[in-house]
Design a protein that fits this description.
It is a single chain. The protein is an all-alpha fold. The chain is globular, with a radius of gyration of 19 Å. It is built from 15 helices and no strands. One of its GO terms (biological process) is protein O-linked glycosylation via mannose. Pfam families: ANAPC3 (PF12895), TPR_19 (PF14559). Keywords: Signal, TPR repeat.
Amino acid sequence: MRQRFSLARLLASTSLIAAVAMGLGGCTGMWKLSEVTGSVGPRAEAAPADPARAVEVYGERYRANPKDAGAALAYGQALRANGQRAQAVAVLEQATIANPGNKPLLAQYGRALADNGNFQQAFDVLSKAHSPDNPDWHLLSVQGTALDQMGRHEEARSYYASALKIAPGDPGVLSNLGLSYMLTRNLPKAEEALRQAYASPRASTRVRQNLALVVGLQGRFAEAETIVKADLPPDQAAANVAYLKEMLNRNDAPRGAPKRTPVASLSQPD
């Protein structure tokens, strides 16, 4: 087991920084289709558990009436969950044209744009999905991640701060704040935010992994290993440790070797 890490080399790695930043497009598993259908239809209904099946079900409803906002929302969400990002953007773009001013559609369209890497456009669209007199903290957090993707870290943190005023202690927002500090190499501040997130009973596995990464980047691998193994079955703990080691040693791979997306990722709370 290798426990020597070159922090300067690791943080200077374009591949690592880019991969951490691209998490906004990589956490489609967080989205809950039932929340979308319940928010726009007359009654909530359970979404198909299988993403591909959800695309079939909601795609059929959408094609029956492409101008229906609820059908477009559910279909766009299903496409995003299934990794069909460009198609989700196209569907939601047309839906916003057919339903101008529909804030739930604008919110979903902005998220889809962010998934697809259109960060400036995503930020602009999300700005229309809520207003300063009635802000949505979920959207403030997503706007922060878009700003982080564009390298505008100080601005991003102001959005996270605004979100935390509305939802104090939210682990997803705190995790995003921690990763924002990580991207500017301020690892103590990153750890501080991520420890606050990790202390929440609502913290996700992603928060645990992000904290372990930041701790490991500071050379404290034994502590990072303890974090990723805590309260997990042995097989899952071993897989997490292996993944953490892979990430911390990724810069030692031969030049040109394929890189995997790291554990750390910016969250998108719905």
